[in-house]
What we know:
A: mainly alpha, Transcription Regulator spoIIAA, four-stranded mixed sheet, 14 helices, 4 strands, elongated, B: four-stranded antiparallel sheet, 10 helices
Amino acid sequence: MDLVTFHYSHLPGEPCGNQLNSLAAHAAMQAKAAKQQTAPVNGLNIEKQDGVVRIRVRQRMDMACAPTLMAALRDAVCGHSGIVELDLSQVPYFDSGGGAVVLRLGHDLSQQGGELRIVGANPAIEGLLSLVDQQAVFAQPPPEPPKNFVLKVGEGSLQVLRDAYELISFTGELVIGLWDAFRHPGRVRWRETWLYMERTGVDGVPIVVLISFLMGLITAFQAAVQLTQFGADIFVANLVGLSITRELGPLMTAIIAAGRSGAAFAAEIGTMKVSEEVDALTTMGLDRTRFLVTPKVLALVVMLPCLTIVADLVGILGGLVVAVAGMDLPAPVYFRQLRAAVTAWDVISGLVKTVAFAVLIAGVGCLRGFQASTGAESVGRITTSAIVAAIFLIILADAVFTVIFHYW
Amino acid sequence: MPIDVVISVQGLTASYGERTILENVSFEVRRGERFVIVGGSGCGKTTLLRHLIGLQRPVAGHVWIDGEEVSQANEEQLRHIQRKFGVLFQSGALFGSLTLGENISLLLEEFTNLPAELVRLIVRLKLSMVRLDGFEDFRIAELSGGMKKRAGLARAMALDPAILFFDEPSAGLDPVTSAELDELILQINRSLGTTIVVVSHELSSIFTIAERCIMLDRSAKGIIAEGNPRELRDGSPDPRVRAFFNRQPEQATRRVGVGH
C-alpha cells in the first residue's frame, strides 16, 4: 500500500504521471492565483490505494477557491482511469463554485474512463448537486450551420428590399395623413399638436438663440479678418446677412431640431412600439399615422420656420456685435448695408427649405420609431439612426434646394 | 436579534410624499424559511419589498438583513448587504442587450475572480438549476414569459445568495408554468436552504410556497394577519382575511343580506 498524504503548499515540482504530478504547473497556477487573489489550496488529502484515488477535502469549496481547487484536483486525477472517491464530509462551506469544480472533475474523469464517487456530502451539497442535470451541463449545443456567400447576399438583399418597402409605404402613409389633415382639419389631434409645438418650438428657443448668436459672431469675425485687409469692412454686413439667412440659419436650426425633436419622436414611438402601445392603437382600429405621426410633423413644420426666423435675427445681431465692437462700424451703417444686401427672397428661400427639413426630420424620426423591435437597446439604436439619417437628409435636401434656387 | 432571524423589520413606515402606504409594520423572517407577503392590490406589498431590498428608505423604522441595517446603510454598506440576496423582479428585468448566459456571467465576472472556463460552467450550472439547459446563447427576446422568470431566477441566484426575494413570481404566467415555478422555488429552498421571501396575491402560489405569511391591508396600512395561510383561511377571526384566502368578495355576506 502506498499512502501519500500531503499539503499542497510546500512541495517541489515533479512531472505528471502519478498522483504527485505537475507541480511545476501547480506552482505557476499558484503564482497566478496570488495575482488573482484567490484563496490558496491547503486542505486536500490525497491518497492512492489499490487503484482508487481517495481525495478528502478539508477546506471551503466556494467561488473564491474554485480556480485553484479545480487545478489541484485535476492534477490529482490526471490520467487516472479508475475510481476516484471524493470525500466532502469535512467541507465547511460549499457553493456553486464548489459545485462547478465537482461537476468538472466528474466530467473529466468520465472522459478518461474513470468514475467519480462523492462520499460524505451533507444535505446542502447533495441538494445543490441534485438540482443540476450533469449531462445537460456538458452537452454541446449543435453548431449553427455556416452561412455561405449566396445566403448572406440573399439575406442582405431581402433586408434592403424590406427597408425600401417600409420607407415607401411610410412615405405614402405620411402623404395621405398630411393630405387628410389638410382636407379635414377638424380630424387633426390639435391637443397633441399644440403640445409638440411647445416642445419642439418654444422649448428649443434658448439653444437656437445661443448657437445662432455664436454662429453670427464667428462668421463676422472670420470675415472681418479677411475684409479689413482690403478696407472692405462694410461688407461684413453682406456676408453675415446672406450666409445666415440663406444657409446657416436654416441649417443650424434644422440640425438642432434633428437632435432635439427627431430623436425625441423616435425614442417616444420606439418605446411605444416596445411596450405594445402601437399595437394597441392599431387593434383599436385607430390610424397610427393620424394619432402619432401627423401631430408631430405638423408641429415641426410650423415651428421650424419660426425657430429659423429667430435664428436669422439673432445671427445677424451676433454679426452686429463684431462689427460694432471689433470693426468700429456704427450700428445704423451695418443695418443700412444689410437692408441693401439681403432681399426678402433670401429670407423666404431659407424658410421654404426649413419646411422640407421639418417634414424630413419628423418623418424619419417617426419611421425609425416604428422600426423598433424589442428592448431598450433597439430604442437606442433607432434613435441614433433617426438623428444620423435626419442630418444626412437635411444636408442632401439643402444641396438640392441650392441647385433649384440657382436655376430658378 | 436571535441567530436564526435573517430579516427583521421594526416599526417600518413608508410613504410616497403625503400618502402613507404602510404604518408601523414589524415582522421577522427566519433563516431557511419560506415567507410570503400577501394582500390585495394596492396594499403596499411591493412597497414593502422595495424597502426590504434597499431601493427605498423608510420614513421611520428599521430593516435589518442578516444583522446589518438596510435602512441606515450608506451606498457602500448597502452594496455589501445587497450581495447577500438576489431579487427576481416581476418581469424578470433581464438585460435585453445581452444573451441569457451573459446576463448571469456579468455578475460572476464583476464580483469574482473566476477564470472564463469556470464562469461558463457556473452559468450552465445555474441554468440547469432552473431547467434552462442549452439556452445560454439565446437572446432575451427569444424567451417565453415563463422562461424569462426562470432566467431571472438563475440570475438572482448567480452569486449563491442566502436570501431570494420574489416580486409576484406568478404574474403573467399560465397556471401550469406558474405551478412549475412554485415547485422550483420549493426545490431551491429545500436543496440549498435559501431563505425565500415572496410577494404575491396568487392564492395557489401562496398555499404552495408559504410556510408563514403576513397579510397587508390597504385601509389598515399594515399587517392584519400573520401565520400559516391554510390556518388563516380556515380559522382567522378577521372576515377580510377569510375572504381573501377563500377567494370571496369581501361584501358577499352583506350583499346577500340586502338583496334576497
